Amino acid sequence: MSIESILIWILLGAVAGWLAGQFYKGAGFGLTGNIIVGILGSFIGGWLAGQLGIGGAAVGGFSLASILTAAVGAIVLLFVVGLVRKA
Question: How far is CA 53 from CA 2, 11, 23, 87, in A?
Fold first, then answer.
């Protein structure tokens, strides 16, 4: 993974974290926390997409596949962290 791909995943993760926070109204961690969770979730989503063979999402870039991958990774991670936080 190149430096450009990593920077793209960070940017996509920030946006995805914000979107995940909007999706989970009230269950998030505030704007900064959601962005951090989104960045981590986008890396997880990108890694998982690569493992599943979803090529467009694994290489990064501003494609629909990478945006969806980052958003899904952020939403899933935000959900899991929310469950752990409540327990």
Answer: 18, 22, 27, 34
